[in-house]
Amino acid sequence: MDEAFRVVPDELRGYSGLLERQAEHFLTIREHAIVKGGDTSGFTGLLSLLDPVVIGVAQLYGETLEAANKKMTQDAETLVKSANAYEKADEIGVCLIDTAGGKMEAPSWLERFLGVGQ
Fold first, then answer.
1. How many angstroms separate the CA atoms of 26 and 34, rounded?
2. Residue 111: which H helix or E strand, with range?
3. Is residue 4 part of a domain?
4. pTM for the whole thing?
5. Using CA atoms, how far apart are residues 55 and 47, in angstroms rounded to an integer?
6. Is 3 domain-assigned?
7. d(Cα 82, Cα 55) in Å, to the nearest integer?
8. Does 74 reside within a domain?
C-alpha cells in the first residue's frame, strides 16, 4: 500500500470557508422552520389540540439544525488547524533537509520551531 497523497493547505482553508457558509444556511433554515413551520396561529377547534406537538416538532427540528451548524463549524475550524499543521510540518521538513545539507545549523531550526536553545 504505497499510496502517496498531496495536501494543499490553501485548498483546506477554502473547504473550511465553504463549510462555514453552508453551516450558516442551517441557521437560516432553522429560523424558518421555527417561525413558519411551528406557526399554529391558524389552528382552531380540534386542530388546536396539535399546538404542542407542532411546536415541539419545530423546536426539535431547530435544535437538530443548530447541532448540524455547530458540527460543521467545528469541522471548518479543524480544517484550518490541519492546514496550519501541514504547513508547519513542511517547514520543519525543509529545515531538516537544510540542516542535513549543511545550509543551516541545527540550533537555528530547533529554536525557531521548537523553542529549544534560547
1. 12
2. helix 106-114
3. no
4. 0.73
5. 13
6. no
7. 40
8. yes
Domain that holds residue 83: 9-114
Closest CA to 19 of 90, 54, 68: 68
Amino acid at 29: I
Pairwise CA distance, residues 27 & 66, whole Å: 6
Q: Give me the DSSP letters along 8-53.
A: -HHHHHHHHHHHHHHHHHHHHHHHHIIIIIT--TT--GGGGGGHHH
Between CA 113 and CA 95 the distance in angstroms is: 9
Q: Of 3-12, 22-31, 98-107, which one has max mean pLDDT? A: 22-31
User: b/e per residue, 56-82, with b = 16+ CB within 10 A?
Assistant: eebeebbeebeebbeebbeebeebbeb
**Interatomic CA distance for residues 69 and 61, integer angstroms:** 12
